[in-house]
Amino acid sequence: MSEASASGDGRAWRVLVTGGAGYIGSHTVVELLRAGHEVVVLDNLANASAESLRRVERITGRAAPLVRADIRDEDALSALLRSQRFDAAIHFAGLKAVGESVARPLDYYDNNVAGTATLLRALAAADVRRLVFSSSATVYGDPERVPITEDARTGPTNPYGRTKWMIELMLGDLAAADPRWSISILRYFNPAGAHESGLIGEDPRGVPNNLMPYVSQVAIGRLPQLSVFGGDWPTPDGTGVRDYIHVVDLARGHLAALDRVLGHRGAFTVNLGTGTGYSVLELVRAFERASGRAVPYRIVDRRPGDIAACYADPSAAATLLGWRAELGLERMCADAWRWQQANPQGYGDA
Ligand SMILES: NC(=O)c1ccc[n+]([C@@H]2O[C@H](COP(=O)([O-])OP(=O)(O)OC[C@H]3O[C@@H](n4cnc5c(N)ncnc54)[C@H](O)[C@@H]3O)[C@@H](O)[C@H]2O)c1
């Protein structure tokens, strides 16, 4: 191994990364490879391009082979897990569009919940019982108070959020039934930004669901203007407040979680956020500063199911994982803009 491993004990690990060709997955694969770990990506490319992994190789000088397969395909999983040994899995694969989950709930329950059950069975059969799982702050629904701690009441308000919550319950039951499992459940707040190289970033298909890529496409002229959903929320400027976290900080959180699952048994849940909330208009102004472009917007009605403010109490991640976010909003905007300018059509430009 050419580079030193980031693991606490200095070992290089073999890690299966499901959904590793996607936005957060590809950034995490960069950090894993840079830390000296071996990575195999399993992805069906439902919402990603294999180009992301070629870019990962350009950034790191190391390859993460892609197995193009579906997590619901138990035969494909078993064949892979029989042919190669893994120390742990990081499980990003899933569908994530809230609106689509309302329109097509069965696709979400099948892909996310049934897919995860299939993956877990295959992992257990291959004696791989260390897992890091992508959950979401959406499991909290409309929070009773902010900042949100992990013991806050849960109550997701849409099918996507309910798939994440069901998977969390399933993982808790699994760890209780079989003490050999070691599971880290990471509740992400709002991932944003891109790798500083400008080579990988968020590449939404169609109209972006998330604010930062939307703003970025307005700034470059691909979309005419931003609609801000609600200007009368009980927040300082009336627009919704969220906890944006740089995707590279988030990726590094996975390495910290991996270290923890490699050294401990049982399941634990932590928030991955910065602890600071920014309003939509604060983000728009930060993006205008970073890009030097105007971001025209108009305030429209609130969307049903939206909430005023959502930001993390990130102290459990600091205590349990020794991790905290380091990159601020300016940096998220600058990196997202670099990615947008270099790849105006995302990986479609490649
Ligand atoms: N981006 C966010 O705002 C956010 C917030 C909280 C949680 N999450 C969760 O983090 C994970 C990664 O999110 P992302 O933003 O990188 O999304 P993404 O869509 O870019 O990545 C998900 C990847 O999973 C793959 N995939 C989907 N279904 C699959 C299946 N059945 N078999 C194999 N591969 C499959 C897709 O092709 C894609 O590459 C998801 O589970 C998502 O729900 C994302």
Description:
- The structure is a single chain.
- The longest helix has 21 residues, at 105-125.
- The chain has 350 residues and is an alpha/beta fold.
- The model is unreliable at 1-6 (pLDDT under 50).
- The protein contains 11 helices and 14 strands.
- 39% of the residues lie in helices and 17% in strands.
- The strands form 4 sheets. A 7-stranded parallel sheet has the order 3-2-1-4-5-6-11, with helices on both faces. A 3-stranded mixed sheet has the order 12-9-14.
- The two termini are 30 Å apart.
- It is globular.
- Strand 2 (38-43), helix 2 (51-60) and strand 3 form a beta-alpha-beta unit.
- Bound molecules: nicotinamide-adenine-dinucleotide.
- Residues 18-19, 21-25, 43-48, 70-72, 92-96, 111, 115, 134, 136, 188, 191, 210 line the site of nicotinamide-adenine-dinucleotide.
How would you briefly describe this protein structure?
The chain has helices at about 25-35, 50-60, 75-85, 100-105, 105-125, 160-175, 210-220, 245-265, 280-290, 315-320, 330-340, and strands spanning about 15-20, 40-45, 65-70, 90, 130-135, 180-190, 190, 225-230, 240, 245, 265-270, 280, 295-300, 310. The protein is α/β, with parallel strands linked by helices and about 350 residues long.
